[in-house]
């Protein structure tokens, strides 16, 4: 039984979270605190918890101050933020992730939603990932996708495209000259923090545009893109409908929307950002982004798969490799917050290079090159 500490000044929200967690046979709310100071006292006194569910806006010591204190004391607790959708809350959530929070779940606007299956499943999925337990729903999703991917690859092989040992397809040498290239990156759980070890280390003159799908709700990706832009030499922006792709620019998919690339001749590529239904519960969805690249005229597309639950991105990449020249970089298990998405693409035998988080930017730059 994994022990959970809940830190929230709202008695109502605490009760909702207690009920969700304590109905699960593998998790139990061991104790609670109404602010960060009381929570810190519990930890300093020797209390041990497998994970902490943390609110941000609290009296005496808020969630940000609590995380700062943990970092100062070298206390590596698994902290899951429960945050609001307000603009200021989004900014604070990004700050919390920088300070070491594992990930976040958006706090519902109403009691009815808080007691619904969506919030309950999101909270439990995140807690299971934080304490290194497997959720049956996620396991089934990954298994089914792996089965689908295997089928797709067999079909691919029947039509004469080699899946392994095709050195012409998977050349590890970066293209040069006037080659037209694109980088398409996917990440989820642990991604906002992981991206800070990748995007700021890309050169401003990278010889490609970069598309990123990070699973986040609406309102959070604007704050994340602004923060990454502040930290980076390369330009970073939240993708907007009608954006014309430019080399040396990173486009972060807008939370709550789906992002696709539309090709208008070989020389112009435009982003489509639309509010539509989620796929597999994801909006944005990396599979949708990768599928939109199928048949595009890029000389090569560098696909990067980083930390995250589930298998989003693998199905799209498998489809993409049937029509386009691609090179796939995956984050290694040790440096992944959750080794789900990188594992799925590795299990599909579609990876050219596996690297640790801190070497992903270098791997991208070496392969894509600079102008």
From TrEMBL:
<dbReference type="GO" id="GO:0008168">
    <property type="term" value="F:methyltransferase activity"/>
</dbReference>
<keyword id="KW-0489">Methyltransferase</keyword>
<dbReference type="Pfam" id="PF00072">
    <property type="entry name" value="Response_reg"/>
</dbReference>
<comment type="function">
    <text>May play the central regulatory role in sporulation. It may be an element of the effector pathway responsible for the activation of sporulation genes in response to nutritional stress. Spo0A may act in concert with spo0H (a sigma factor) to control the expression of some genes that are critical to the sporulation process.</text>
</comment>
<feature type="active site">
    <location>
        <position position="312"/>
    </location>
</feature>
<dbReference type="GO" id="GO:0032259">
    <property type="term" value="P:methylation"/>
</dbReference>
<protein>
    <recommendedName>
        <fullName>Protein-glutamate methylesterase/protein-glutamine glutaminase</fullName>
        <ecNumber>3.1.1.61</ecNumber>
        <ecNumber>3.5.1.44</ecNumber>
    </recommendedName>
</protein>
<keyword id="KW-0378">Hydrolase</keyword>
<dbReference type="InterPro" id="IPR008248">
    <property type="entry name" value="CheB-like"/>
</dbReference>
<keyword id="KW-0145">Chemotaxis</keyword>
<feature type="modified residue" description="4-aspartylphosphate">
    <location>
        <position position="55"/>
    </location>
</feature>
<comment type="function">
    <text>Involved in chemotaxis. Part of a chemotaxis signal transduction system that modulates chemotaxis in response to various stimuli. Catalyzes the demethylation of specific methylglutamate residues introduced into the chemoreceptors (methyl-accepting chemotaxis proteins or MCP) by CheR. Also mediates the irreversible deamidation of specific glutamine residues to glutamic acid.</text>
</comment>
<dbReference type="GO" id="GO:0008984">
    <property type="term" value="F:protein-glutamate methylesterase activity"/>
</dbReference>
<keyword id="KW-0808">Transferase</keyword>
<dbReference type="InterPro" id="IPR000673">
    <property type="entry name" value="Sig_transdc_resp-reg_Me-estase"/>
</dbReference>
<feature type="active site">
    <location>
        <position position="215"/>
    </location>
</feature>
<feature type="active site">
    <location>
        <position position="188"/>
    </location>
</feature>
<dbReference type="InterPro" id="IPR011006">
    <property type="entry name" value="CheY-like_superfamily"/>
</dbReference>
<dbReference type="InterPro" id="IPR035909">
    <property type="entry name" value="CheB_C"/>
</dbReference>
<comment type="similarity">
    <text>Belongs to the CheB family.</text>
</comment>
<feature type="domain" description="CheB-type methylesterase">
    <location>
        <begin position="174"/>
        <end position="371"/>
    </location>
</feature>
<dbReference type="Pfam" id="PF01339">
    <property type="entry name" value="CheB_methylest"/>
</dbReference>
<keyword id="KW-0963">Cytoplasm</keyword>
<dbReference type="InterPro" id="IPR001789">
    <property type="entry name" value="Sig_transdc_resp-reg_receiver"/>
</dbReference>
<keyword id="KW-0597">Phosphoprotein</keyword>
<feature type="domain" description="Response regulatory">
    <location>
        <begin position="3"/>
        <end position="122"/>
    </location>
</feature>
